[in-house]
Amino acid sequence: MSLSSPHPANVDSAASEQALLERRARLLGPTYRAFYRSPIHLVRGSGVWLYDAQGRKYLDAYNNVASVGHCHPRVVEALSGQAATLNTHTRYLSEIILDYAERLLGTLPPRLGHAMFTCTGSEANDLAIRIAQHSTGNTGVIITDFAYHGATIATAQLSPAAVGAAGVPARHRAVAAPDTFRDGGRAAHDFARNVAAAIEDMRAQNIRPAALLLDSAFSSDGIFFPDASVMRDAADHVRKAGGIVIADEVQSGFGRLGQGMWGFANYGLAPDIVTMGKPIGDGHPMGAVIVRPQLVSSFGSNTGYFNTFGGNPVAAAVGIAVLDVIEGEGLIENARTVGAYTGELLAALQSRHGMVADVRHNGLYFGVELMAEDEATAAAKTSSVVEAMREDGVLISSCGPRGNVLKIRPPLPFARDNAEQLAEALDRALSNW
Amino acid sequence: MSLSSPHPANVDSAASEQALLERRARLLGPTYRAFYRSPIHLVRGSGVWLYDAQGRKYLDAYNNVASVGHCHPRVVEALSGQAATLNTHTRYLSEIILDYAERLLGTLPPRLGHAMFTCTGSEANDLAIRIAQHSTGNTGVIITDFAYHGATIATAQLSPAAVGAAGVPARHRAVAAPDTFRDGGRAAHDFARNVAAAIEDMRAQNIRPAALLLDSAFSSDGIFFPDASVMRDAADHVRKAGGIVIADEVQSGFGRLGQGMWGFANYGLAPDIVTMGKPIGDGHPMGAVIVRPQLVSSFGSNTGYFNTFGGNPVAAAVGIAVLDVIEGEGLIENARTVGAYTGELLAALQSRHGMVADVRHNGLYFGVELMAEDEATAAAKTSSVVEAMREDGVLISSCGPRGNVLKIRPPLPFARDNAEQLAEALDRALSNW
Lengths: 433, 433
Hints:
- 2 copies of one chain form a homodimer.
- Chain A has helices at 10-28, 73-83, 95-105, 121-136, 153-156, 160-163, 186-189, 191-204, 228-240, 299-303, 313-328, 331-352, 375-391, 416-431; strands spanning 42-46, 49-52, 57-60, 114-118, 140-144, 173-175, 209-215, 244-248, 273-276, 287-291, 356-362, 365-370, 394-395, 397-399, 405-408.
- In chain A, helix 2 runs antiparallel to helix 11 (313-328) and helix 3 (95-105) packs parallel to helix 11.
- In chain A, strand 2 and strand 3 (57-60) form a beta hairpin.
- By secondary structure, chain A is of the alpha/beta class.
- Chains A, B: Keywords: Aminotransferase, Pyridoxal phosphate, Transferase.
């Protein structure tokens, strides 16, 4: 599991990985980039563990999609059973989608009365924006300046992390993310004011905001958990200007932050729409848009909206199973307690390694910001730490506009000994500098 | 199975369906509309059959998603097996996605060299448009005037069937669909000329076409199979103006048309991009974009495109299973022969029922156009025929800008006796006028 014990099949494995990479480039093309200098050929997953073709075991401290654990038997059973029974669309009646909607809505504030189902988080954010524009009659959307909200044309235009600032159309506004660390947390302190200024700037160009769209953990921006009051003030500004508030819980939702099911609740926010994706089906392609009924009273009749696969009985069965597991295995409690313990271990590293400038977290979602003599060096070192961890058998990644924040986001059944393995590996990786 | 033998549980079932509808309206909201005056509460599917909560059996002559048959055991086995083993994203290497890409690309012209995977047909068309705009530098898209291409913001703007003509932005152009029936097939005859005129009209407003986007069966427009030459000429016009050709095979692909796997091949068309959805995974949420490599050489590096669930090992296993079944069970041959037989039975109805104005088909995809004294009456009668068929245990639907075309599109294992049941039920429904 460590650099000092190379696997005997390493030479063969390098050759076969090279062949796989070439075949991949030929068939899938250059859009398909792999993680790591030496990409991993995975063949099996179970709980917090992933296994490669040579039988090497990796502690997964990154993949939020398999959120209740890779290949959870309860989820697989629900998937298999329903797929063998009925899998059709929502133009016919089905009880299981209603059972699922009821369960999901039960985890949310009562004013969010309707559940709509998509197949991805991108589709969920795309639909949320569409509903926001349709219901407000406005067009502009306010996001943070290194946000990621999806891969459809409309959501990519709201994802400067992917398309760059120049890829955001003029009708939208990207405000500084509420960075709680740099400049003494000035951007976090000024966040609501910056949103107000963006609205003013829009107004000067005769644009009105349809929505404020925020990832509750500011995942791509670098992982931040600003004060509740600035978040609520920002929401107030947008509402006063005629817009609505969309909480993007695609990354932060389903118990990850350890205080409850949803990240926005930590701010005392009352969003008008909540979007969900990644962890919702433990890997099954699902997304959801939870919405105040008033916003969609005429949406369907004016747009003919329909999603062929969204909310089919198989997705509903999987969704229920995921909720069952979160509840039955106490995963929110686990995210809180093991998250706190992991946070302590990471904070201890900060005292031992000068390059660790900030450790921030909520539940099992961690941002570890690394600093060096200049930004380019910090980014290169961050990347090297991620690579060294992979060689050491622990999977993490990085994020943020400067690429200098370690992104740690393990499946929720992460245990105390998993946390120790993570911290020890990170200690070794940081010690190499 | 017929109106003359009402199910004994009908009264109870009506009450329970009413309760289900009320619960549905409360939880999912008004966007979720159900088929039929008395919506069907489905609980099981197998092959070409669907079963409701009262045990009533329906012949499915409409659902193209469960294209190799509802709950096909080979597909369910592949799904269950892979979901229990590994389900993660494409940033890691995996062989099964390459095996699937190779199989899928093997069914297509060699110049279409790369496969990219999404989770829905909407996402596939959205990505295709994004690639077209990115690679050509142009913005306009040409579609038909009652097309449907998806539910994302960008694809809905190219779906006048859902959003109306007013919902199509000014940079795009909707041309008359190549209707092979009305006015002696004039719109079909003039199709290429109409595309050329749209390009001229764009040019006058300084817009250049990024793509011609066509459903190979013109599904929403009323189901047409125009002459190959006009389709090729239309494609030539767009290419000369700097645009590319996208074949939308979300409805027509995977053997339905009985001549091969893809509808565009019937026209001798050489598309630059082919999009896939609905039948690709027999109900599993999948989509694909097959593209000429030149078009995506810089797409990924400029856009950071990534799809979290798209092309995961579970989707690949399901996709391979679907191709295995199409091949192993001779479903393309079945679509051709049973399609021809069904076509004969429907044509015989035309000679007996004056309101049947046109029967058109290719393989197992049928449009039956009904006429009456005026358009409103024809639409109402078409709707009544669909309802009567449902009461008689056969599921079909309708399409077209006037709502007067019966849309018949059964799963591919449709057998000769299924065709006879369909034709007999349609005969009864038409006899009531």
